[in-house]
Amino acid sequence: MARPSAIWVAGKGHMQALQLAGAWTADHAHDLEDALAEAFGKRPQLEINAPLKLDCAGILNLDTVGAWLIHRTRIELADQHGTVAVTGLRRDQNHLLSEVAQAEIPPPAAPHRQGAYPMLIDIGEAVVDAGKDVSSGVAFLGAVMAALFRVLIGRTRLRPAAVVTQLERVALRGVPIIVLISFLVGAIISQQTIFQLEKFGQAQFVADLIGVLVLRELAVLLTAIMIAGRSGSSFTAELGSMKMREEVDALQTMGLDPIEVLVLPRIIALLIGLPLLTFISSMASIGGGALVAQFYGGVSFEIFFSRIQNIIGMNTFLVGMYKAPFMALVIGLIACIEGFAVRGSAESLGAHTTASVVKSIFIVIVVDGLFAMFFAAIKY
Amino acid sequence: MRETIVTPEPDARDESGALVIEVENLTVGFGERNVMEGLALDVRRGEILGVVGASGTGKSVLLRTIIGLVGKRQGSVRVFGHDMDKVNPKRRRLIERRWGVLFQHGALFSSLTVKQNIQFPMREYLDLSPRLLDEMAMLKLQLVGLKPEAAERFPSELSGGMIKRVALARALALDPEIVFLDEPTSGLDPIGAGDFDELIATLRSTLGLTVFMVTHDLDSLAGICDRIAALGDGRVLAEGTLERLKSESHPWLQAYFNGPRARASHVHQRKT
Ligand SMILES: Nc1ncnc2c1ncn2[C@@H]1O[C@H](COP(=O)(O)OP(=O)(O)OP(=O)(O)O)[C@@H](O)[C@H]1O
Ligand SMILES: [Mg+2]
Q: What is the pLDDT of residue B88?
């Protein structure tokens, strides 16, 4: 199709005309803009207020982009030359031009000015946000506890079906991956430990190390991190998309408390599920360790397990189990808070899901550190 | 690299009255159930076709099948004379560029502002300077009757009617030849709906649009539709002008066009 063009021609008398021709459509927008810019550059010496004409007889087809450019040219020329007549358009094209001419396009907004110290502003905002996170976390914890209390004194009922469904998703379906990962980690640690201990000819001590490490720290950490990634992210995404589609508002208008209906079952499921998974993870890690010790380090199952039985006290096992519910609470709270913080857009859903996982894992590790200090202080 | 822009070929372009969409013997179903069986429907260039039918009769499914979002079990769909099953991906893209779709629920991109939503197809397909891009977005916004202030808002900050308008502006972004509208006026106040109808009629006459409009709005049917197709029982029950459909004996059509709501609307006041 014909390339669009804009050429100045001398009209009758002292009349000047800009002759527009070709295809004035969106597909040729680039050529159109170039042609117009060139025509503006080559503007002949015109008397101010000399009548001007835009001769459009050569225009083959016209769409809104072309019509807008004609309109824009007319306005720009009219600034200096008073009225500018547009001639030669077909009737439907004229109709389009007058439709386009009705629009008032505001001048482009001035670009947003950056603050003088953008980095300082960012740091300040981050600190304030972190403070808000803490206070909203405490408020949310309070709301959850209040709901739990209402359930305990029988003012509202627990939703057993919801709890069981969540428990299935959090705990039961999480078993295979947690067993697999724990088993592998146990095996790897066992292998590395045996490697070092063999230098002293004391490979059997691998049982002590695996036992203490896994039961006190590793099982609960591994499980909490896996659950933060698996269940925390899905809680955030679920609650977030419910929030986006006004499902949470719908619950509220039916007189139901979203915390009772949505949050409590999930947190209870985590509180029950995470200790169970921690236990399973401990067993799987020790199993992995024992297997490698038997076949790689020549430490037989009897020696391995009798050492575990004699050396590892109940308290070591309990340390890990005590920590699990706290991890569950942290993960559940963060996931739900982030879920409810989702605003309208898909992007915000993604951002909050990421934040949920990252914050959960970070806090899980911080909490684990605090517990390590605490148990060391009370010599447990 | 930007793909070189290919101008739409002039097939059947300027013959008004030529068939732009031909649906033949179409069967579409989900699972065990067929939503439509052996449906046939034609759309002519430059007309506004209204598609009516009870809820769940497959109006949205028909629209989605024509634009290729839902697979069909049998039959053929031809758009601009091309059999949509036989076109290669490149040709398909060219055809898709020539239609615009307004989905029943707007389907705006939630993480883009109104302006960015409208500019999105322009950025993909056209080579516009930033200034022209901005101006065109504002122009389309005003064409559909929205204030420039709405440009920087996100879809979640819009009212239902505004979402419809922005979705129409996005559907019109590339100056399409066909627009598919799925219930454009549902959720609008009657005056807004009337304006919307007028807007569609204006755009049809200025841009030469062909409009495929699913609607429940009797006023739209009476006011701007050239032809109406009524779906039911998995096929087109009847098609033709409003007058013709009013005289059909099918019970649903009788109830629809001669019921109390129809009597209250323009259907019975205006001659089409
Ligand atoms: N993805 C899908 N899977 C299964 N069934 C579907 C799917 N989409 C639509 N249907 C079914 O197809 C039928 C037609 O649906 P459709 O959305 O086309 O109705 P409609 O005529 O547009 O109704 P409305 O006027 O309420 O929008 C309905 O029975 C619906 O349940
Ligand atoms: Mg529908």
A: 86
B contact residues 41-60, partner A, Cβ 8 Å cutoff: none
Residues A220 and A159 in one domain: yes
Per-residue model confidence as pLDDT tens digits over B231-265:
888 888 888 888 888 887 888 888 887 777 776 66
Task: Please give the Cα distance from A194 to A207 (Å, whole number).
Answer: 10
Place of tokens 């309990």: A318
Looking at the fold, whether A186 and A97 belong to one and the same domain comes out as no
Q: Is A203 inside any structural domain? A: yes
pLDDT tens by residue, A188-197: 999 999 999 9
Closest residue by Cα to residue B268 from B218, B200, B228: B218
Tell whether A302 is within 8 A of chain B (Cβ): no
Report the domain count for chain A: 2
CA distance B239 to B47: 14
Whether residue A265 is predicted with pLDDT greater than 90 in this model: the reply is yes
pLDDT over 70, % of chain B: 90
Domains of chain B: 18-98+179-184+194-239 (3.40.50.300), 106-175 (no CATH)
Please name the member of B110, B134, B139 whose beta carbon is closest to the beta carbon of A344.
B110
Residue B22 to residue B84: CA distance in whole angstroms: 10
**pLDDT at position A186:** 95
A250 and A361, same domain (yes or no): yes
Tell me the CATH number at A46.
3.30.750.24
Closest CA to A215 of A135, A131, A144, A275: A275
In a shared domain, residues A284 and A191: yes
Q: Residue A121 falls within a domain, yes or no?
A: no
pLDDT band at A24 (very low <50, low <70, confident <90, very high): confident
Query: Which residue minimizes the CA distance to atom 4 of ligand 1?
Result: B30
Which domain range does residue A295 map to?
132-377
Measured CA to CA, the distance from residue B75 to residue A32 in angstroms comes to 43
For CA atoms B203, B204, B209, B210, give the dihedral sign.
Answer: positive
Would you say residue A44 lies in a domain? yes
Same domain assignment for residues A88 and A136: no
When mean pLDDT is compared across A39-48, A316-325, B62-71, B178-187, the lowest value belongs to A39-48
Are B206 and A26 within 8 A, CB to CB? no
CB atoms near residue B205 (< 10 Å): 14
Q: Which of B234, B188, B249, B233 is nearest to B215 (CA)?
A: B188
Residue A124 lies in a domain: no
In a shared domain, residues A100 and A197 = no
Query: pLDDT exceeding 70 applies to what percent of chain A?
Result: 93
Among B153, B64, B145, smallest CA distance to B104 is for B64
Q: Is the ipTM of this complex over 0.90?
A: no
Same domain membership, residue A98 and residue A145: no
| Spatial separation of the C-alpha atoms in residues A14 and A156, rounded to whole Å | 89
Tokens 């019975």 found at: B268
Among B129, B156, B206, whose Cβ lies nearest the Cβ of A99? B206
